[in-house]
Amino acid sequence: MDLATFNATPAEDLRPVLTACLDVPRWADAVLAGRPYPDLVTVKAAASLTLFPSEIHQAMAAHPRIGEKASGISKSEQSGVDSAAREKFLAANAEYERRFGHVYLVCASGRGGEELLAILRERMNNDPDTELRVAGEELVKIALLRLEKAVTS
After folding, report:
1. Exactly one of 18, 31, 51, 63 is catalytic; which is it?
2. What is the DSSP string of the chain?
């Protein structure tokens, strides 16, 4: 939808569009509260929130593991992960989840499987609190890309 439509659409009709970008009610509320927006830059600024740990965990539940069969919007975002990288991700995801207790999240759009694996391996050096913060930042990056696709100028 264009920006004028986004600004004029009732909040209850926009909420599903926003939760498809990021399933965090506070995030959707913040984006809705800022309307009307003069431009997409301002929309993205309002959407660039720092997520709380509980929100990060909630939003993770809506994301498939990198390298697994993705569907919907996640499928196009993970299109750079080929079948050879998928195999490597099985073990890497398991190791990551044992260490941190949650799925590996990274903004995969435009990145290949080997690059995403290298990022995962590098992030294995993080302590759990740092890694959760990084995962939250990645969730917001993903949400901003999805928002850009949902709302055009």
Report:
1. 63
2. -BHHHHHHS-HHHHHHHHHHH---HHHHHHHHHTPSPSSHHHHHHHH-PPPPHHHHHHHHTT-PPTTS---HHHHHHTTT--HHHHHHHHHHHHHHHHHHSS------TT--HHHHHHHHHHHTTS-HHHHHHHHHHHHHHHHHHHHHHHSB-
- Is residue 15 a contact partner of residue 28, using CB atoms and an 8 Å limit? yes
Domain boundaries, the chain: 3-150
CA 39 and chain centroid, separation: 22
- In order along its 153 residues, the chain shows pLDDT tens digits of 999 999 999 999 999 999 999 999 999 999 999 999 999 999 999 999 999 999 999 999 877 787 665 545 544 445 455 566 777 888 899 999 999 999 999 998 888 888 999 999 999 999 999 999 999 999 999 999 999 999 998
102 is catalytic: no
Question: Within its chain, how far is the Cα of 107 from the centroid?
Answer: 6
2, 152 Cβ separation under 8 angstroms: yes
Tell me: domain 3-150, CATH 1.10.3330.10, correct? yes
